[in-house]
Every structure is written in structure tokens, then in C-alpha cells.
Amino acid sequence: MPKTWFITGASSGFGRELTELLLHRGDTVAATVRKPEALQDLASKYRERLWVAVLDVTDGEGVRQIVSRAFADLGRIDVVVSNAGYALFGAAEEVSDAQIERQIDTNLLGSIRLARAAIPHLRRQGGGRIIQISSSVGQAAYPTMGVYAATKWGVEGFFEGTIPEIAPFGIEVTLVEPGASRTNFASSSADMGQILLVYEQTPAGEFRRKAESAGLAMFPGDPRKVAAAIIASADQAPAPRRLTLGSDAYALVHAALTERLAVLENQEALARSTDIAIQGAAV
């Protein structure tokens, strides 16, 4: 049965791929973009099945208004995809305060704004699905990507707390954790800090050199296949809590979680030793 989707950041990357695939298969898409002309080709082809609005996710009131208008115009929205975002590259002292604030405002606060705007509508209609585009860097991080990772770890933490809150209303959530895919993630949509030479012989410099020399080899993910997997997840019941996509994403997340669990287990005795002693308990 055809679904109705709401997608932010639909002009490029995963948002564009999702929009194209969904329209092609017969679904209806409410697509939000910064520049409406970016979807003119699709609007001409699919007409009434493509609803387009201009949206900046850093504008809280704008998010509420556009989400409300989409639900009012389309009657029901089955899946809300929070995709808008970009990458900021740079070591902690290489990025400016303004760059950090913009990154957090877009990636983290923008995702929270969208969820908070959509949840009341999904609740009133009896349920639905939220798909949050996170990242494999939401479970681990690379040098020069600390601020970007902070936004993805933050949004995952937000949904870890929110998922049980909204489950009784039939609202399910999937956190999508793709690896590096051949979108414009590291090019036109990215922001860069000021490179300091002092980092040249550090892991930050090594990571930059690896990225420059590897070229497309560092981006094994196929955006169209990632989008297809995201769409397929919307039909899974129950919704997968996380969807890790890409061989690089699997390797990074698996290594990070394995190491983290080993460290935790080695600290079990210490952790238990800091509890308040219960009077009369056996020693």
C-alpha cells in the first residue's frame, strides 16, 4: 500500500535519493528544501504526489508551521524522515565558536525540533514512523570529526529517551547509521575549520592525509542502495531501533562497541565497589 512521507533535506544526498525512489514506486512525498528549484524536475514529473516547502530546520517556528501544514494538506503522514544536516571537519581548536553553534543548531537541535513538531500529529493520527538519519559516527568517531560526532551521539541519546515515551502511541523510531557514501557529504554540504600546522603529525593530520589520498575509496557506500534499505525498513515490524548501512559503518561500529564492552566489563568490580554499603550485608 502506498505511503506518505515527510523528508527534510530532500534536495541532495540521501534525501534526494529517497524522494526519487519513493515517487517512482508510487508513494507521496512532502519534501522540504532550502531552495525549491532543486526539485523542479521531480515536481514537473510527479505533480500532485510531490508536496514541496522551503524549510530551514534551525527555525523552530518554521519547522512547526511546515510540519502542521503538511499534515493538514496531506491528511496523514506515515513516515517522517529527519535527514537535513551537514558535516563539520576540524580538530577541536580548529573550528570556530560560530561553526560549532551552527553544527549543533542544524544537526542536533534541528532533529529535535522536527521530532517535537511531528510527534503530536503522529500521536493524534494513531501512530507512524520516524526515521532519523544518524551516522556510524554516532557510535564512534574519527579525528577532525568530534563536533559532528557530538551532534550524532546527541541525537541518538535524545531518541533513546524518546522512543519509550512515544511507543504507547504507536510511534516507532529507526536510527539510520550509514557509513561514508558517495553523496555530497564531504564536499558542497561540508564546512571546514582552519587547519593548524601543529596537527600535521597527529592523528588529525594523518586522517586528513588518508582522506585526501584515498579518494572515492573512502566512500564505499552506494547512496541509492542506502536509500532503498531505509525505505524497506519502514515496512519492518517492529521497527529496527538502529540500521547500520555500509561495510565501513559495520566495521567501525562493531570495533567501537566491542572495545567499549570490554572496558566496561573490566570495570565491573570497581563499579560495584562504589555502591553504598548495606548495613548487615555479608562481606
Automatic annotation (TrEMBL):
Alphabetized SUPFAM superfamilies for the sequence: NAD(P)-binding Rossmann-fold domains
- The residues the entry assigns to the signal sequence are none
Coiled coil spans: none
Q: Which UniProt keywords apply?
A: Oxidoreductase
By its UniProt entry, which InterPro entries does this protein fall under?
A: NAD(P)-bd_dom_sf (IPR036291), SDR_fam (IPR002347), SDR_oxidoreductase (IPR051911)
Superkingdom is Bacteria
GO terms (molecular function) for this protein are:
oxidoreductase activity
What family name appears in the similarity comment? Belongs to the short-chain dehydrogenases/reductases (SDR) family.
Name-wise, this protein is SDR family oxidoreductase
